[in-house]
Amino acid sequence: MNGLLGRLFQFSAIYGCFVGLLWLAKYGMGFSDYLIPSPAEFLHVIREDGPDYVIYSLNTLGVAVYGHIIAILLASLIAVIGSLKSTMGVVTRVAAYNLQAYPIVAVSPIIFIFLGDGLASRLLIASLICYFPLLLSLLGIFSQPVEDVEHFFVETGRINHRLRLAIRLFENLDKLLTVLTGTATLAMVGTIVAEFLAATAGIGHAIKIALYQDNLARILLALMLIGICSSFYLAVIEMLGRIFSRVLQKG
Amino acid sequence: MQFIFRILCIFSMVNLMLLTGCSSGEKETGTSRHQGQPVVLRLKWLVNVSAAGEIWALKTGIFEASGLKVEIKEGGLEHNAIKDIELGRAQFGVASADQVIRAVERGADIVVLAQIFQKNPLKWIYDGSKLHIQRPEDLKGLSVGITYGGNDEAIFRALAAAYGISKEDVRFYAVRQDYTPFWNGDAQLWPVYSNVEGIVLAKKMKEHGRMPMFFDAEDFGIHLVANSLVTSRKIYESRPELVQAFTQAVLKGWEQALDAKNGQLVADAVHEFDGSVGVKLIQEQLAATRALVLSDIVPIGTIDKAAWRDSEELLFRQGLIARHVELSGVLK
Fold this sequence. Notes:
Shape of chain A: elongated
CATH architecture of the largest domain in chain B: 3-Layer(aba) Sandwich
Number of helices of chain A: 10
Structural class of chain B: alpha/beta
Largest sheet of chain A: none
Strand content of chain B: 15-25%
CATH superfamily of chain A: MetI-like
Oligomer: heterodimer
Number of strands of chain B: 11
CATH topology of the largest domain in chain B: D-Maltodextrin-Binding Protein, domain 2
Helix content of chain B: 40-55%
Largest sheet of chain B: 6 strands, mixed
Distance between the termini of chain A: 25 Å
CATH architecture of chain A: Orthogonal Bundle
Order of helices and strands of chain B: HEEHHEHEHEEEHEHEHEEHHHHH
Radius of gyration of chain B: 22 Å
Largest interface: A-B, 24 and 26 residues
CATH class of chain A: Mainly Alpha
């Protein structure tokens, strides 16, 4: 709970400063409400569009969470295969490192052609955007021997691939949790990118409409809700991470 | 080691110089080479045949002859002409009625100097060999592409309201940047600028044995004025000679650009700025643009005040503006 409040406070402070600076520029330089909305217009938009935008943001958060889970599963699978010393492992590692160079925004039109502009495309783009950093970290963790611990099992002849991966995962748990938290933000970004490009739902779609209608007040509202949702999600992951570590340490 | 460090330093400096010197972060379309009053014109969208008049005026020295050193910049979702004018980054811009009216409603102090398109180029393309659309009611049961938040959505919804077409009567398909849903038949009507991508799409349709037809909401009394020349009231009042010189140069550019005898040269000029479209295709686009800009009744650039009032009413009824906007002081 403290983690969530802390994250929300951090976000609110940054967002407040950002909006404050915008209004400082607006009134200092005499910009119209068209260029930068007034506080009154912003409050009006919160009242009028707030409920809808909350639903859009939750929709986006839902897709981001599922996309993140898919990415974690996919990255774990590929990383496990990539950690093998066989040809298959080497090929998987090379392919993984090379494929991550492709910007998803450029690949997305192909995804939309085959999957349309529904939930599947949003999920896939969200998971692809956070999948690569996860994969690279997992490959790094799984390929890096923990000599001190592994040595004992090697000498006693009890080492096998599964045990080796378990040791490396356990020893790098903090690192893994940091990556998971970091990629949660990417999952949110990925979902919004997908929605902006082609979807018909979610906060990214709402931002695109607001851009077409030159409505900065709605974009500010969307940014606020995205920040709140991201803070919430990050705090939940951190909390789950702490629980998971505690359980493992006890076990 | 020292040698490698020096090489890296030189490489970084050259890179930095290239980045700062060659890129301003956005595409500049063109600038007059001669001296004159510096002026920035922000287009509504990417450079294409819809800016033929401005390009021709730049290319043939009409701007220079008027004592202007004009820089034309592309527009887009993030590059709004009205915002650029208010920020002082551009003196003139091209914007559509929906943009102007929304801006004025929210306090932007701008004026419209000329209306470039007498007819809105926005139409819906469809395959005439499969669909027979004579009147709006024929749209019932069809899937129609619309850009959510775009002016085609406002036009279509106004048309639907005027002709009693309910939400259940048509299926909306969200438009994106590729035409796959139209080719697949997921969307039977697709919104296009009839003088730009409409020509490209129609050509492809013919190549595939289809019969391209256009549905124009304007034929059924739905008016939303398209590209118009705008500036700030401050510039309009403080620099009348600049405003007059620029407006006349742009209109002269359009007159000459749409003169059939200049067709080839204008197409070459547009092609120079937008190499992605072939000269022959640009000539076809130019012919389509001629019908939208020129009128038998009024001179080029005339502001159709009745159409502007209709546009304002349309936006109000669609809830896109919260209150009525007084346009008499805006339209010059």
